[in-house]
């Protein structure tokens, strides 16, 4: 499998009252296409920060991040935005759906910013994504009319509508009961089996064990990279 991500001595700090507070300290690792990787670790260990950097929402203070062999440091804002839109999909604990838009409209939203998909294809593309996550009968439902698990499925459809190489999920099952959470994990594992890389942050070790790799962060350091 080809290498999708490589981090070399990646570090990140935030500054408060002229004082440096390191969050990530010298992270080195690589992730291949189609891998499932869980990021675990105690609260405050830097998991979400690492995910934000992987998802190009934040830039590391030092070190190197190569995405498909290209250093993200060489990308300008527009190039990063294009990669975020066309190659990355996000899933959040609170689903982050737009309340007054239907499932179909929520899923179609990223396509409006994707110049490679003609507007005449928005509906069919979004519909296909919702069918894939098992929501063929909920296309016109508003988020409030859906269960938590169904809302997360809409969010997954939105994440995969642009056929991303990488799905980043921050505690995707955190607001769901165990059974519903497991069905969401199954769906993410299925996407990975079809070639999409999935990196997820979780506190749940039972979920981490189902991923091919678990990366453990303690105090901003990687302790278990395999
Ligand atoms: N911009 C910032 N300003 C102040 N503190 C920050 C900032 N960004 C991150 N932090 C701190 O950095 C540490 C790491 O945060 P991060 O959210 O990455 O941890 P986490 O492992 O995801 O935690 P949790 O499991 O609780 O979500 C925390 O102590 C957080 O408060």
From TrEMBL:
The ABC transporter domain, residue ranges: 5-225
UniProt KW keywords: ATP-binding, Nucleotide-binding, Transport
MF (Gene Ontology): ATP binding
PROSITE patterns assigned to the protein according to its UniProt record, in alphabetical order: ABC_TRANSPORTER_1 (PS00211), ABC_TRANSPORTER_2 (PS50893)
Any Pfam family matching the protein: ABC_tran
Database matches in PANTHER family: ABC TRANSPORTER ATP-BINDING PROTEIN YTRE, IMPORT ATP-BINDING PROTEIN
Protein name: ABC transporter ATP-binding protein
Lineage of the species this protein comes from: Bacteria, Pseudomonadati, Pseudomonadota, Gammaproteobacteria, Alteromonadales
